[in-house]
Design brief:
By secondary structure, this protein is an alpha/beta fold. Helix content is about 50%, strand content about 15%. The protein has helices at about 1-10, 15-30, 40-50, 55-65, 105-115, 140-150, 165-180, 190-200, 235-255; strands at about 80-85, 90, 100, 120-125, 130, 135, 155-160, 185-190, 205-210.
Length: about 260
Amino acid sequence: MKTLIYRALDLMQPLGLCWLLLTAWVALAWCKRRPGKALPTLAWLVLSLATCTPLPSWLMAGLESRHAPVTIGALPQADMIVCLGGGAEPSFIEPTGIHLKGAADRLSTALALALRKKAAALVLGGGGYSQDGEDHSEADAFVQHLSRLGEMPVEVVSLGLCSDTHDEAVKCAALARERGWRSVLLVTSASHMARSFATFEKAGLEVIAVPCAYESSFHRVGDMRWLHLPHAGSFSIFASWFHEVIGMAAYRWRGWM
């Protein structure tokens, strides 16, 4: 009974309600053989495939499977641990001074590596955020957060404001040359690893992939349903997959990977 109530509530949400109304529209159009059925039928099909089936997760799994899963203990030593941005943003109202985001698994994984002293330094990348005309760095904010928690077992380095993954790779390569480093434990989302790995290798670094933040339902704990009511999370998974596909094409075209 509780499950039925939850599913009914799902259909009252904007996404579920739009899908339900579109389903009724398409059904009525076909029953009454009205003209102009093709476009609403196509819209219903796209919406249903994207939100009621595991298609987005299947597409995402293809990206996430390009590098094998790893365990912290089995990873070799390296010169530096590099955590790409996207896991946090500066905050003026959070008690910690930062707001964790969807890719926070990157930070969790990088910290686990640092606590095991898998490298001499933890290097943090990330973008910037503007507030009242002033830019604030994601990496700087997290370095400050770590300093408030206590002394880290390894050196923590911020790359400052980075415009994209290529910028992070270029800055890491410059830091490596300056310190005499070569190998890097690269921590980023599994879906983002293929592009990041190739970009950091192109920058001249020896890369050890540490994929994390798996989004596909094929790679997460729990029973996967092949058909289900519309789920807004499917949009996020599809958007991440699409972003990476376009990103890899753009990086190849620019010669960054």
